[in-house]
Amino acid sequence: MATLQLKNITKQFGDTKVIKGIDLDVNDREFVVFVGPSGCGKSTLMRMIAGLESASDGDILIDGKRMNEVGPADRGLAMVFQSYALYPHMTVEGNMGFSMRLAGVPKEERRAKVLEAAKILQLEPLLDRKPKALSGGQRQRVAIGRAIVRNPIIFLFDEPLSNLDAALRVQMRIELARLHEELDATMIYVTHDQIEAMTMADKIVVLHDGVVEQVGSPMALYHHPRNRFVAGFIGSPKMNFFSVEQQSIGDDGVTVRLPGGRPCTIPVAGEQLASDEALELGIRPEHLQLDENGPLSGQIKVLERLGGQNSLYVQMGELLITIMADGDVAYRVNDTVQFGLAAERAHLFDAQGLALESLSQHPLASLTRQDNRAATEPAAPGAQV
Amino acid sequence: MTTHRNSAPAHTRSLPIRQLVLTLLGWSIALIIFFPILWMVLTGFKTESAAIADPRFIFSPTLESYQEVQARSGYARFALNSIAVAFGSTFLALLIAIPSAYAMAFLPTKRTKGTLLWMLSTKMLPPVGVLVPIYLIFRDVGLLDTRTGLIIIYTLMNLPIVVWMLYTFFKDMPKDILEAGRMDGASTLQEVFFLLLPLTLPGIASTGLLSVILSWNEAFWSLNLTSSKAAPLTAYIASFSSPEGLFWAKLSAASTMAIAPILILGWMTQKQMVRGLTFGAVK
Ligand SMILES: Nc1ncnc2c1ncn2[C@@H]1O[C@H](COP(=O)(O)OP(=O)(O)O)[C@@H](O)[C@H]1O
Ligand SMILES: [Mg+2]
């Protein structure tokens, strides 16, 4: 069992408030990802959980016990640093066994535990090397190994993949997910990369400027962002936003006037809207379709052919709209195109940037990674028949 | 790729002339700096009359001065004092400076920069300004002409520089590594002994060497605070200049013997020194 609770945590450096009151529950064996732009306070929050930084206010509870005054080594956590922070003067074995050496564990026992962790991470042939004789990916694995050896109840990762090249990052992502299954541990992972968050998390915590913008499963954040910030941050390429005029509010949603004049009814609840409130519509590039009869039009400014798909950057009035389109269509720069939007996938944001609530939940929004597994594993044998 | 291959020889072709000029310049400066030492060493091997005659490089060397110097006063006693005082004060300075520099580098406060500057500013005061009070204190507590007294004075004298140097080396050390150690369960002492000291050893070694050299060569305090028992080699040299007038050859022989150990130490550790002084720059 390892749960973590944060209660109204704040952190102040001098006069600057970096963390402005965060509440969070992390469940046992959950893979929680803190995601947010650089400088939003992710590392600071994680360092407070680790005990490397004291909280200015609020409580940190691990398994229900207040940990604010407990030192980093006694919280039962292990941390993997962005820079790996390996001990350069020790071998891989020395690095991984350092915590046990400090704890006075006998040499044979130390070696056995190091070997066990090395096996999980395929580090056995490297045990006698110094960190400087390792590649980036290998150093990363040693850093993870050093954490595993400590047998922590919660793993903390601070942007562990950001120093790796793209291919290795994908590989390590998969490996970390596998490790999470294998170790059955609670993991907290910090990243500024929303793709890492989407692919690995059970639960994503979107941070912005020291506050939590939204907590939820990847699919919940994708389909039902709570506000404009989360909508823009989650998903790649970024969601498009443009202003629309309110026309009417009905049982089937809010009807707005799109740029170009055509009406469109978005299935969201609009009871609380003031009648003249300015609205912004958000729609993801993958939910815009090229359509000769579509309500919107613009001129292609940039065309990125990715093979299977084309990214079209279309000038619509003042705005550059991104559209993901079929890769086999031969559009050219400066062509004028008509396009439409999937109204049920569109989001409306009020003047404060808060999303109007959807009238129906997306069926995948409550899906977790555990559900992924439960749904596919028993189905697999049957599916082959 | 091809541009690389083409430009490489062009690059090396322009080098020799530049390099030649730079090498010549380097050697000239080194010779100018080294010349007095060379002249001193040469004079030590001359007879007393040759030493005051017209300067010349070619002469028949003799160990006469060395024998006389050796016969007159015990070099070994002074040398032992120098060793004890230089290494003792360096050890003590490091012992105090390592925790200080740790605190300043890893737990800085608003006033850390100011403290560092203030420490350095104490080096700007001419030592003679505090000679009388220190002399009186030393006399009253019985530290005059003792090794302990000199060690204390040298420690205080070198402490600002030692703290400063260690501070810069510690600051260059990635904080993450120490934090990783803390996560692994290291106490502050273990952090220092298992991680900080091994990783900044080149810097600490060069700091220590500098402190040894400064203490070894120090003359003002040793001449004023010691007379016979605790006198180091600087006092030994001085003893050849006074009563019977100047004897250049003997003075040179004594000086050569006084600086020889530190020169040899410096030469043996020059790699370490350079590595320490450029630590961080080449990391
Ligand atoms: N020790 C510190 N002293 C002062 N400000 C700090 C300190 N550590 C972090 N900050 C500030 O806190 C903010 C959040 O930093 P950080 O948690 O590292 O962001 P992130 O990891 O999300 O990029 C930044 O604006 C940073 O400048
Ligand atoms: Mg960070």
What does this structure look like?
The complex is a heterodimer of chains A (385) and B (283). With 385 residues, chain A is α+β, with helices and mostly antiparallel strands. Chain A folds into two domains: 4-228, P-loop containing nucleotide triphosphate hydrolases (Rossmann fold, 3-Layer(aba) Sandwich), CATH 3.40.50; 229-349, OB fold (Dihydrolipoamide Acetyltransferase, E2P) (Beta Barrel), CATH 2.40.50.140. Chain A has helices spanning 42-50, 92-102, 107-120, 136-149, 166-183, 194-200, 218-223, 228-233, 369-384, and strands at 4-13, 16-26, 31-35, 57-62, 65-66, 77-80, 154-158, 186-191, 203-208, 211-216, 240-250, 253-257, 263-266, 279-283, 288-290, 296-305, 309-316, 319-326, 336-341, 347-349. In chain A, a hairpin with a 2-residue loop joins β11 (240-250) and β12. The radius of gyration of chain A is 24 Å and the shape is elongated. By secondary structure, chain B is mainly α. Chain B folds into two domains: 8-66, no CATH class; 74-277, Orthogonal Bundle (MetI-like fold), CATH 1.10.3720.10. Chain B has helices at residues 2-44, 48-52, 64-72, 75-106, 112-121, 131-141, 147-172, 175-183, 188-199, 201-217, 220-225, 233-238, 248-268, 270-277. The longest helix of chain B is centred in the first third of the chain and has 43 residues, at 2-44. Mean pLDDT of chain B is 86; it is low at 1-10. The chains are: A alpha+beta (385), B mainly alpha (283). Chains A and B meet through β6 and α2 of A and α8 and α9 of B.
